[in-house]
Amino acid sequence: MVDWDSLLAYNTIKIVRIRDKRLGILHLIFMVGIVLYVVAYSAIYKKGYLSIEEPVGSIRTSLWSPEIFKNNEPYCKNSSESYQYTKLECLYYDDALVAYPIGDDVGFTATTRMKISEQKANCSFSDPTCKFKTINQTNVYMADIESFTILIDHTMYAPSSGIQYNGGDLSGYVLDQDGNEIQINETINVIGIEGRPDILQLGKLLEFGGVSLDDPSMINSSNPIRYDGCVLFVFIEYSNTFSYDLNKIKYVYSIKKVDDTGYDIPEAIILDNPNSRLYYKRHAIRLIFIQTGLIGSFNFQSLLLTLVSGLGLLTVSTLVVDQLAIRFLPQRKSYSSFKFQTTESFKMKKRIVNDDGEDKLYHNIETL
């Protein structure tokens, strides 16, 4: 016969006070550690009360040529200084000719070398075999490109919290080669000063990225980077979680070069008629701006979730101490007998009526 009482037994919680300082101290250590982790570390230090979002934004850049160009640069053909690579003729173009294309929202291109081809097509383009032919070609460097300055105007916006700032309203920094956050307030170079736009010379920006235009090219070591061009990521990271004052927001520039790449871009300029053109093959510094970061705002649900997550750790700590008490300590059998208690099976025998006329159930405790 099936003993349904045993088969469908109900397990209830029983609190047993075990007077053993070893178990008490261990459980107390667990409890203190969990409270410190949940409250001090997760909720306060890691700011578990914040709702975190990544901001979006916009970038506007412009290039300015120096007022006075340096001459006698070692890479120029007319220079008397030695240069480990092939020298080329140097042209002193202004910013309108060095920057291409104009009005790029997510990047910036500054030409370092240009192959200029004068081309003509002595045929009609109604003929599918009609092709341009190069009649003259020159290969030149853009002189003193490192002295060109770039203005960076950026804006950030956090959609959920509604936080919005222009870069000129915030404190900013740039990471140097040692990973230190620094501000710059010089005559030309300015980074992170509130109320002033961010302006950097291209040479200074390349320095922060660990790049020199006279280093070997990343695609052909027999040429300098000046010859083949390069690609750099310029990260702008916004944050208000570096302190407990959420109204303080900063941004940090970090410049990273893209390995094993050069950069070139073609440009065709029609002259007096469609059969006559100048073909520019530009090799350049390509800057790609990426806005990122973490913006936090107080959120009660985030705080509640952080605190509730600690309840699971409390259960684990109690389970560990229980298993130690009933399985490993010398008194484990005694502790186990106190912790677990099985009731006897109570089965209904008959119904009786007492002297007052009230119905009572009479039970017989079996197996006593």
Automatic annotation (TrEMBL):
InterPro entries: P2X_receptor (IPR059116)
Recorded GO MF terms: ATP-gated ion channel activity; intracellularly ATP-gated calcium channel activity
Biological processes per GO annotation: cellular hypotonic response; regulation of calcium-mediated signaling
Keyword ATP-binding: no
Pfam families: P2X_receptor
Locations listed in the record: Contractile vacuole membrane
Entry keyword annotation includes Metal-binding: no
Gene Ontology CC terms: contractile vacuolar membrane
Keywords on record: Ion channel, Ion transport, Ligand-gated ion channel, Membrane, Receptor, Transmembrane, Transmembrane helix, Transport, Vacuole
Family: Belongs to the P2X receptor family.
Name of the protein this chain belongs to: P2X receptor
Organism: Dictyostelium firmibasis
Lineage of origin: Eukaryota, Amoebozoa, Evosea, Eumycetozoa, Dictyostelia
